[in-house]
């Protein structure tokens, strides 16, 4: 099995837990959003992308090769970035107060950064 290095003080188990906690927090956040047509559409999108982060990270942990892992981690990066986008929209639309969104936005951005760092490390090993 390939070990993913997601930072000096981060390991696979901790990263799995962080992505799961983020998914749960996003699900809970969405329950507080208004029930308008637009808010509901955004809620569906962020639940899909926010829960996909951890699921795809788990898939990356079971990768068969470095190339497979990089491909799966690229999905984690994309889903994390998309989640950050939806959090920005929720804030800018005023659907929820910024103090509810900020911790999730910070965590999502950290996950993006750690994922990008992991991809760079894996690519460097590959060459």
Order of helices and strands: HHHH
- Output the radius of gyration: 15 Å
Strand elements, count: 0
CATH topology category name: de novo design (two linked rop proteins)
**CA(first)-CA(last) distance:** 19 Å
The description of the largest β-sheet is: none
User: Roughly what is the average pLDDT, rounded to an integer?
Assistant: 92
CATH superfamily: 23S rRNA-intervening sequence
Based on helices, strands and strand pairing, what is the structural class? mainly alpha
Report on the structure:
The structure is a single chain. The protein is mainly α and 127 residues long. It has a single domain (12-126), classed as de novo design (two linked rop proteins) (Up-down Bundle). Helix content is 80%, strand content 0%. It has four helices and no strands. The protein has helices spanning 12-31, 37-61, 66-93, 98-126. Helix 3 (66-93) packs antiparallel against helix 4 (98-126). The longest helix has 29 residues, at 98-126.
